[in-house]
Amino acid sequence: MSAELPSPSDDVLTALTPTARMRPSTSLLTDRYELTMLQAALADGTAHRHCVFEVFSRRLPHGRRYGVLAGTGRVLEALADFRFGEDELEFLSRHRVVDAPTLAWLEDYRFGGSITGYAEGEVFLPGSPVMVVEGTFAEALLLETLVLSVLNYDSAVASAASRMTSAAVGRPCLEMGSRRAHEHAAVAAARAAVIAGFAGTSNLEAGRRYDLPTIGTAAHSYTLVHDDERTAFASQVAAQGAGTTLLVDTFDVAQGVRNAVDVAGRDLGAVRLDSGDLLQLAQEVREQLDGLGATGTRIVVSSDLDEHAIAALAVAPVDSYGVGTSVVTGSGAPTCGMVYKLVAREGRDGTLEPVEKASARKGSVGGRKCAARRLDSEGRAVEEVVVTGPDDAVATWTPAEAELRRLMVPLVAHGAVDTRWTGAVGVANAVERHQASRAELPRGARRLSVGDPAIPTTVLRLT
Amino acid sequence: MSAELPSPSDDVLTALTPTARMRPSTSLLTDRYELTMLQAALADGTAHRHCVFEVFSRRLPHGRRYGVLAGTGRVLEALADFRFGEDELEFLSRHRVVDAPTLAWLEDYRFGGSITGYAEGEVFLPGSPVMVVEGTFAEALLLETLVLSVLNYDSAVASAASRMTSAAVGRPCLEMGSRRAHEHAAVAAARAAVIAGFAGTSNLEAGRRYDLPTIGTAAHSYTLVHDDERTAFASQVAAQGAGTTLLVDTFDVAQGVRNAVDVAGRDLGAVRLDSGDLLQLAQEVREQLDGLGATGTRIVVSSDLDEHAIAALAVAPVDSYGVGTSVVTGSGAPTCGMVYKLVAREGRDGTLEPVEKASARKGSVGGRKCAARRLDSEGRAVEEVVVTGPDDAVATWTPAEAELRRLMVPLVAHGAVDTRWTGAVGVANAVERHQASRAELPRGARRLSVGDPAIPTTVLRLT
Q1: Residues B386-426: tens digit of each pLDDT
Q2: What ipTM was estimated for this complex?
Q3: Which of B22, B56, B304, B329 is most buried, taking the most CB atoms under 10 A from its CB?
Q4: Binding-face residues of A in 229-288 toward B, CB within 8 A
Q5: What are the residues whose beta carbons fall under 8 Å from the beta carbon of A55, sequence distance 6 or more?
């Protein structure tokens, strides 16, 4: 996938089809107030006003230099199942969440609006309009909670994961954190980690759903259920071949390594260390393996690693990193704080008007926005350009200058989802996009130390 | 529900029925290594060894005084759908995750073992054996990842939520964080928050699934889509009655409050403040409301609240707290770090033997455990007693001393799930359990400041 995307053609546009009915509805994965607002707006007619909602982050987590957008493909997948079936309507009726006219309206609900946004995997900065949802107030409002749930979690994981793959400087990172996240969040986390450069995941459902490489061989319990370590290793090698990874730290590491090479031979694929002082241990194990002639046997480490621990292991003879807790919890920033704000709506006279909340310090800038990234002559990003101005001008804006890379891509056109962004294809495209987008950042952007956003955000006001 | 539970009788025990086949399988929500271990263990026979796995936390998050167990009911619900259907087997076969004999074994898989544990909602301490899973190595091993995903996330939320409801000292806390968590994690978070004392949630799916009170009226976008605030308020009151909650901080708060009372009258249910200096603002708004004669109108606040912000508002005339990000992300501790460890397994001679991992500092104590809480003469908890010793003695141990409250309850008996812990009934029981368990803690336990575990954990070794 290149930065220059072809326009969506008919064969990549998929209308929301009735087959979606076979999957569970996503329409109640939402806040009650979306529906109570809907009822009042249907009654007074504002529900039908044309509106523009924008998703953006006010700030990055403390000290982070960039964020990584993830979840876009999952938003589009969830959209296909966002319908109110018999069960959902029955619940809303029984609990009097909304009245009869609103129930009737919901029964026919399909999102018929349009969505544009940053391509999944793209780097974002504070204020970047990462997604723009356009339609009637009613149809666009209803998506708020679900859109934010997906983007906030997935982007939190991808943003942390990108720092880890940066710190690993080419050594593979493997996502193993399923047990430290909600069981379905774990699937999304695996997907987001891969988008940000992870080489694979332990999560089988993520492997199935998004065609990701899955990894994993054995845990300590496997060694412990056997009479001794040698028996356990022999049985694992018999089942999986010498190319497997043997976990050598259940008892004594040095003895574990001896047992591993004894049993599997010098062609043993890898040993895994899941505890202790990994920096020193990796050194010792490398020497021991080499001394035993197992020079091709790799060393996988996996004990409470985060981006800082990975960076500290740069000098150790480690071949890959298994990362758990820290990646699935966003390494200290478990959500992105993205918001979904109404920025323009049709007024009484039928024209779109910018709107903004005025009180307190939460004020956001009204009006439709789009964005581009300014590159220098060497192709390095130098600033995030957020474009504002008259609605028509912003909606149709295309960068005239060669050094401005357009960031918005079409995602949904009048209810039809662009399938280049969904499923396994969507993930593959996002992996490429993230790699290209991160490579474009100024060098300092990938430092782990506390700092400012990698590039400043400026406003280009069209007239 | 009292601490003394009746034994499960036939009518509360539900076998895992074929109707579970209609729901999506949960069996691939797991790490690949559970299946590769299974294959090797099936081949060498250890798969059939009787085993005891234990779930526990090595430590509480920094400075926390207690944890709250949540997710037990969800584990049991997920267990009913943990089966390998055609689609799952096809994936495992196509990607060569396991061999043909393992696929054949998985096709017939149903968990036929037994599970005991702390009742959901119970307070736990480091080392508390909150869940004990017993069965063959194969059947118990397969549940590891899913059990941990559920308990780690749900308990992280409940542990944070309990601090918030403590800090609120009787004022209702309302869970509104769906948008800051994965869309399905949000449902679990709502459930866990309610278990820890929250009065309701904005999440409709959680309301539907667990029969929780749902709340919510309007957001800033609702005001902004209208021509002005008065029109928006009037329309909301027309749709929802004067008892509704009006969001008064879209423009100017004082004007918002005037508009609200003008439009809804003195019987206005509540106003909501979602920004600004809530301590001062609540004071001003209360005076203004009283001055307008709306003395019964309540004040709801909801701007980035956590337990500390709630405590700081104790002196403000606030009637309820809307809590978002911090509760669904565990207020700084988004996972519990619970582990699922093999503690005993059948040896060659057919008897259960304790096992433990020896290397590094991760060493856990081998052997089956159970637990009781020691109470003083006034019914205050004074210590967590973890019972170890010969397997039979621990398995059948009942506290003889009146001041020892038994903590383990039966959850699954030979594959049959005790439905007192599932669905809406399970949540209601967990709410009661948490309330009673927290009330029993020494007074200092509910302080928010950094401290040690509320009660020490001691080991009682049976002979």
Answers
A1: 999 999 999 999 998 889 999 999 999 999 999 999 999 99
A2: 0.95
A3: B329
A4: 231, 235-236, 238-240, 249-253, 274-276
A5: A117, A129, A130, A131, A132, A133, A147, A148, A151, A338, A339, A340, A341
